[in-house]
């Protein structure tokens, strides 16, 4: 009975379902044909609700799906197929059969727009159907784990429309999706070539592909967009940009290439936004970067119009583009960095070669003006060398300025490139043997003339430049040696324009290189200050003693602490010279003065010994020459002569000599005891130099020979009241090869001391170290002063072992200090 | 007149039954109310229900018309929103056909197929988050609708239009109504049995006590039995998988099998008309064992 009833109920519903479905299906057709305005939402909802309530949800779901499948296949697909020409299907633009590109574009557009419309209408209709079938989705689909009818209908669109096959010829077919892909790819290519395409139509179709899952989900869920379009897009883009890169490198210059690449990247990013999908942005960016930048960077840099050309021609904005491109694909900018380093080293080496060539220039005809014939003397050649040295520095600075500008403007002040530039500058500067000397000469030149009339700011700039170069110098001890020597001459001969600036320079070096470096320079300045006080004090002392001698000689004394001043380069280089100088015979007036000061000084500082360096001093002499007749009657010719101390001693000899008498070279030497070299130079300056021939030499020639005779030049004439007798040793000049070897030898000696001191310091602290460790630690300790040769260090260690300061532990490789600390080594 | 031992035993059993029934009722009353009315969104909003002021939509049903507001119903119900705001509101139509004014535009929605009491409860719920279950008159019969039945009807409409909160509320109310109804039936039965015995054996004190204490015999006539209607509503108007009300009805039936099966003919008819219910009961009997 119950069973019968159950059946009966079901049978009753069966009839109900068929007729209800009829109504629903008719309404769905109306919805699809845009004729839904007469339909009643609640009626349709109620009918679907009832079917589901009567357990017919499954049947309803299947009927709706089948309805949609039929609709898509019969109406939509048929309509779309009608729009396809064979050319569009094959996707081969070669087969256009007389079609112009524009016609092809238009045909593609029509298809895209129609597909877009079909998709959008499908979505709209399905959303209306879904509204009506809400109860089925919620009750039936949820309980039976079915996708919502909407999703099912979307998948149907994919399967029935997009994946439907279109036969092109026997055994050959493409899917609608394939056609769509080819059309989009072709249009993108057209856009890349400069045509205008309908971005909105493509974007709508891309939206569709993004909204659909791929049918084959074996590799996890994937959007149709990625599987059916993106891969091909990326592949064809690779091909396109690879070809374009080749053409561009061949046909345009580097600047154009950069600008074009930048434009291409912007275009592709923009295309992802406006036409394709944001999810493709990074991938296509990578494609363009790979094909136009990463794989081409080196070619681009090496082009004729590449980086070298840009640097030479100050193409800062082009260099900036290259930098941007390289930075885009490589955070280290390896390619550009290498290229720039090569260029810097090449340009620097050119400067070095020019500098070396200039320093080889021997007395060859000087390119100076004819008016200054004095310059063609030996002193002139030295001057030329100095000019070349300064030119080297200025060239380096100019190169530095050039690359600083490139760096800040084009290289966006990039840290990595700065490091690279610094390394390259250091490389070529240190490759040049005379760099330390030249930089010191450059500073010397500026201190003596360069800063004249400059504002504080301008002086600052000069000092900063010098410091910049100094930073590159590896062997700071060589620089130290030259700088102190040059500074000494400036200070003692009063050549510095400003003591303030000198002190500024020293304090800058102190900041840059540390206290130790400038210790001696600072005490040099202290000596200068003390000397001024001594001079003033002595003057007062003499005045107080009440010696009103009108012929009194004024004394300006510089008392120099020995060891602080590098006097070896100033003629005090050997012991025998030392002896000879001690015996210099001063004229009585000067001898009195010397004694007076020595007495005064020993009262102030007992126990100190003064050594007089006559070769370092100068004297002002007021000289009266015999009256000579002239147009304005006779005039007394008085001149103030500025000569070296030796010059003064020599001239005073002739003061006491009766008019017309003469002295020969040997006479002069025996009466003064001036070393031969110095005497020759002194006599040259007062008897040979054309403008300061206060003495007459017999016979007249450029060289001074021991047989020459000298007498007072009564007919000496000069337009100037004050005359400076140029001394050959007066200026700071480039060293000759011999001097240079001497300097290097001295420097190596002091290096040896420094290395030994460092070794002993390290061993005192560490007690026990292996040979290897000791060498490397010594290298580290000395790095701020110079870069020692490893062989040199090993030799010093051997020497220390020999002298029993160090010992091998049990005959092994390890070392330990022996006995008391090596005090001797620390204070040579 | 002394009672025979058999009579004594009968009387004692009746008294026990009564005590049990009273305990059941008391337990019911002591229990804190499970019905927690939602707080009205706004007192003012509640008063707007069926208020012609600002009303822009009329919902009709079996001759009744409720004046409501699109803002309220669309924000409360997805169904109304789909109907009035989605593509259906602007359903595409061929431009040249002169279409008559549609419901969306005319502002009338006809829910004729639904029960008017349930429709009213649903609409009121939109405004007040609650509804009233007392004294509803059935439109066809004119009789008072028992709360259990009304709650079942509200549950059905809440399911149909997918209003989850209303479903939960009506389910709670339904459970309480069913249990109350069945418990009261049990109490009445027990009292009746005891009263008959008191009469039969002429125990004056007991009869007087019952008449004064429980007002028995003077009470209003019993409401017609609604068990069949409730089962029919629950088992025909909600989907099979929706166990919400079905479990409540089943549990209540099994707990009070004596009360519901008192009318053997009626109970059998209920089983016959509702095969799902019959299946549920059979399964429950197999699980629980025979009473």
From TrEMBL, chain A:
Residues 434-687 form the Cullin family profile domain. The lineage of its organism: Eukaryota, Fungi, Dikarya, Ascomycota, Pezizomycotina. SMART domains: CULLIN, Cullin_Nedd8. GO terms for molecular function: ubiquitin protein ligase binding. This is Cullin family profile domain-containing protein. Keywords: Isopeptide bond, Ubl conjugation. InterPro entries: Cullin (IPR045093), Cullin-like_AB (IPR059120), Cullin_homology (IPR016158), Cullin_homology_sf (IPR036317), Cullin_N (IPR001373), Cullin_neddylation_domain (IPR019559), Cullin_repeat-like_dom_sf (IPR016159), WH-like_DNA-bd_sf (IPR036388). One of its GO terms (biological process) is ubiquitin-dependent protein catabolic process. Belongs to the cullin family. It comes from Cryomyces minteri.
TrEMBL record, chain B:
It comes from the Eukaryota. Signal peptide: none annotated. Pfam families: BTB. Residues 55-135 form the BTB domain. PANTHER family: BTB DOMAIN-CONTAINING PROTEIN-RELATED, BTB_POZ DOMAIN PROTEIN. CDD domains: BTB_POZ_ZBTB_KLHL-like. This is BTB domain-containing protein.
């Amino acid at each position: 009975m119950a069973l019968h009833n159950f059946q009966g109920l079901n049978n009753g519903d069966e009839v109900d379902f068929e007729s209800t479905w009829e109504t629903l299906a008719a309404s769905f057709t109306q919805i699809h044909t845009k004729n839904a305005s007469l339909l009643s939402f609640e009626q349709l909802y109620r009918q679907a609700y009832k079917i589901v309530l009567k357990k017919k949800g499954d049947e309803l779901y299947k009927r709706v799906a089948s309805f949609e499948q039929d609709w898509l296949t019969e109406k939509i697909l048929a309509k779309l197929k009608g729009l396809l020409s064979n050319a569009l299907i094959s996707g081969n633009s070669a087969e256009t059969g007389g079609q112009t590109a524009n016609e092809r574009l238009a045909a593609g557009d029509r298809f895209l727009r129609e597909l877009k419309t079909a998709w959008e209408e499908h979505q709209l209709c399905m959303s209306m159907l879904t509204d009506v079938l809400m109860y089925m989705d919620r009750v039936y689909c949820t309980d039976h784990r079915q996708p919502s009818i909407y999703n099912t209908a979307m998948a149907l669109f994919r399967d029935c429309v997009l994946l439907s096959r279109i036969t092109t010829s026997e055994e050959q077919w493409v899917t609608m999706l394939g056609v769509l892909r080819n059309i989009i790819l072709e249009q993108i290519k057209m856009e890349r070539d400069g045509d205008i395409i309908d971005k909105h139509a493509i974007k709508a179709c891309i939206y569709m592909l993004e909204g659909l899952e791929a049918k084959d989900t074996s590799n996890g869920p994937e959007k149709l967009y990625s599987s059916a379009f993106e891969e091909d897009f990326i592949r064809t883009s690779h091909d396109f940009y690879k070809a374009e890169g080749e053409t561009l490198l061949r046909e345009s210059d580097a600047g154009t290439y950069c600008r074009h690449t930048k434009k291409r990247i912007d275009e592709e990013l923009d295309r992802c936004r406006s036409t394709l999908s944001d999810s493709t942005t990074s991938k296509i960016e990578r494609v363009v970067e790979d094909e136009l930048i990463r794989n081409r960077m080196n070619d681009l840099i090496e082009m004729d119009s590449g980086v070298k050309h840009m640097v030479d021609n100050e193409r800062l904005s082009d260099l900036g583009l290259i930098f941007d491109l390289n930075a885009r694909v490589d955070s280290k900018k390896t390619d550009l960095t290498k290229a720039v380093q090569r260029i810097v080293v090449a340009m620097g080496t050119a400067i070095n070669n020019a500098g070396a060539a200039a320093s080889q220039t021997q007395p060859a005809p000087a390119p100076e003006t004819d008016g200054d014939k004095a310059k063609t003397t030996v002193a002139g050649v030295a001057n030329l060398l100095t000019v070349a040295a300064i030119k080297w520095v200025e060239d380096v600075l100019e190169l530095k300025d050039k690359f600083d500008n490139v760096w800040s403007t084009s290289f966006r002040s990039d840290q990595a490139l700065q490091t690279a530039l610094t390394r390259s500058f250091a490389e070529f500067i240190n490759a040049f043997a005379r760099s330390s000397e030249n930089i010191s000469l450059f500073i010397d030149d500026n201190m003596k003339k360069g800063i004249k009339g400059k504002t504080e700011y301008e002086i600052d700039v000069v000092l900063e430049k010098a410091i910049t170069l100094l930073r590159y110098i590896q062997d700071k001890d060589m620089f130290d040696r030259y700088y102190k020597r040059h500074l000494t001459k400036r200070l003692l001969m009063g050549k510095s324009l400003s003591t303030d600036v000198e002190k500024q320079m020293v304090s800058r070096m102190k900041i840059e290189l540390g206290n130790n470096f400038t210790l001696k320079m600072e005490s040099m300045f202290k000596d200068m200050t003390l000397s001024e006080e001594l001079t003033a004090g002595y003057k007062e002392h003499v005045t107080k003693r009440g010696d009103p001698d009108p012929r009194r000689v004024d004394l300006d004394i510089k008392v120099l602490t020995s060891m602080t001043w590098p006097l070896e380069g100033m003629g005090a280089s050997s012991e025998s010279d030392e002896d000879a100088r001690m015996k210099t015979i001063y004229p009585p007036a000067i001898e009195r003065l010397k004694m007076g000061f020595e007495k005064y000084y020993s009262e102030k500082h007992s126990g100190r010994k003064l050594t007089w360096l006559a070769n370092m001093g100068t004297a002002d002499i007021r000289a009266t020459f015999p009256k000579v007749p002239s147009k304005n009657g006779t005039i007394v010719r008085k001149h103030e002569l500025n000569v070296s101390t030796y010059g003064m001693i020599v001239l005073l000899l002739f003061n006491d000599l009766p008019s017309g008498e003469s002295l020969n070279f040997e006479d002069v030497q025996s009466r003064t005891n001036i070393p031969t070299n110095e005497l020759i130079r002194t006599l040259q300056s007062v008897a040979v130099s054309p403008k300061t021939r206060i003495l007459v030499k017999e016979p007249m020639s450029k060289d001074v020979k021991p047989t020459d005779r000298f007498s007072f030049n009564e007919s000496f004439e000069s337009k100037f009241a004050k005359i400076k007798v140029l001394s050959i040793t007066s200026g700071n000049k480039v060293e000759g090869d011999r001097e240079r070897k001497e300097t290097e030898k001295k420097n190596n000696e002091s290096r040896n001391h420094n290395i030994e001191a460092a070794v002993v310091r390290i061993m005192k602290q560490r007690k026990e170290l292996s040979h290897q460790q000791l060498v490397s630690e010594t290298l580290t300790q000395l790095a701020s002063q110079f870069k020692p040769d490893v062989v040199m260090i090993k030799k010093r260690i051997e020497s220390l072992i020999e002298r029993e300061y160090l010992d091998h532990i049990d005959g092994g490789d390890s070392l330990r200090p022996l006995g008391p600390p090596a005090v001797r080594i620390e204070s040579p | 007149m002394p009672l025979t031992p058999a009579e004594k035993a009968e009387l004692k059993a009746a008294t026990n039954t009564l005590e049990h029934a009273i305990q059941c009722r008391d337990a019911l009353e002591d229990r804190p109310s499970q019905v927690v009315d939602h707080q009205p969104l706004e007192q003012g909003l509640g008063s707007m229900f069926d208020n012609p002021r600002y009303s822009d939509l009329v919902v009709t049903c079996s001759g009744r018309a409720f004046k409501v507001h699109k803002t309220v119903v669309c924000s409360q119900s997805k169904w109304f929103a789909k109907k009035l705001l989605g593509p259906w509101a602007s359903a595409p139509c061929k431009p040249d056909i002169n279409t008559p004014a549609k419901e969306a535009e005319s502002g009338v929605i006809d829910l004729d197929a639904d029960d008017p009491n349930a429709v009213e409860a649903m609409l009121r719920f939109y405004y007040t988050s609650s509804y009233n279950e007392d004294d509803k008159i059935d439109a066809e019969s004119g009789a008072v609708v028992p709360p259990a039945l009304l709650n079942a009807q509200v549950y059905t409409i809440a399911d149909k239009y997918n209003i989850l909160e209303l479903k939960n509320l009506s389910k709670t109310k339904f459970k309480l109504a069913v249990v109350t109804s069945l418990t009261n039936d049990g109490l009445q039965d027990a009292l009746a049995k005891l009263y008959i015995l008191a009469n039969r054996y002429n125990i004056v004190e007991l009869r007087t006590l019952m008449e004064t204490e429980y007002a028995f015999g003077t009470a209003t006539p019993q409401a017609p039995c609604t068990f069949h209607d409730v089962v029919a509503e629950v088992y025909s108007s909600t989907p099979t998988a929706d166990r919400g009300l079905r479990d409540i009805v089943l549990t209540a039936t099994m707990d009070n099998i004596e009360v519901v099966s008192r009318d053997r003919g009626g109970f059998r008819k209920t089983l016959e008309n509702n095969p799902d219910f019959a299946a549920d009961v059979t399964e429950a009997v197999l699980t629980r064992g025979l009473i």
